[in-house]
Amino acid sequence: MWIPLMRTITLPALVLLLTQIPALRAQEACKDVMKVPAVGKWVEYQALYDQKDKYVLRYAVVGEEKREGKDYRWLEMKMTSETDSGKNLVYQMLVPGGGPLDLDKVEEVVLKSGDDRAMKMGGMMIKMMRGQLAKSSAFKDACTEVALVGEEKVTVSAGSFKANHFRSDKYETDSWVDASVPFSMIKSVGKSHEIELAASGDGAKSSITETPQEMPGLGPSK
């Protein structure tokens, strides 16, 4: 479930420089742009999926650490259903440099579904996830599959913004972005989703307070 959500939420931020750089450099520029915010930054969205499932989505950077001399950040994605607590989900991923384009280099994943105990994925599971992400990265494709519609004023729950309107024919998505907002997204509308910014701020903490268990049978984390 979390991969399509990532695609929906982060697509606009991937394309902010497309109108300013040559096509051959688009991939490199997207990677430069797509570094998630500083630790503590968060955004919250009101979301509707398939015209019936209402969620509150929260994206935050809840920590950072070094591994083998490299900088990593903990990116948290939290889904809260307005109708069914069993669909609540928290995903935390340790990514290099805080860049979603480097999801195929994810070092660790912690998942908490509903009221279940948080589980840590490592070892073989991480290797499988890396391989899948490397083969089907929506982030890289998005850099060459969008067009700038123009700058527009857009009003959402969080207020009014002067945002750049991007359209992706490949994903049939219209998105409005403002670089002054963490994660850049103001609003996104597609065939199966409607998302708009409700709030943003600083001081984010991890939503997972218990010590995660190792997922059985898949080897230890690094």
Give a nutshell description of this structure:
By secondary structure, this protein is of the alpha+beta class. The chain has helices spanning 2-14, 26-33, 123-135, 138-142, and strands spanning 42-49, 53-67, 70-81, 89-96, 108-113, 119-121, 147-156, 159-168, 173-177, 185-190, 193-201, 213-214. It has a twelve-stranded mixed beta sheet with strand order 7-8-9-10-11-1-2-3-4-5-6-12.
Features:
disordered N terminus, alpha+beta, 4 helices, globular, 222 residues, single chain, 12-stranded mixed sheet, 12 strands, outer membrane lipoprotein receptor (LolB), chain A
Could you characterize the architecture of this molecule?
The chain is of the alpha+beta class and 222 residues long. The chain has one domain (2-214): outer membrane lipoprotein receptor (LolB), chain A (Clam). It is built from 4 helices and 12 strands, in the order ααββββββααββββββ. The protein has helices at residues 2-14, 26-33, 123-135, 138-142; strands spanning 42-49, 53-67, 70-81, 89-96, 108-113, 119-121, 147-156, 159-168, 173-177, 185-190, 193-201, 213-214. A 12-stranded mixed β-sheet has the order 7-8-9-10-11-1-2-3-4-5-6-12. The longest helix is centred in the first third of the chain and has 13 residues, at 2-14. The model is unreliable at 1-31 and 136-144 (pLDDT under 50).
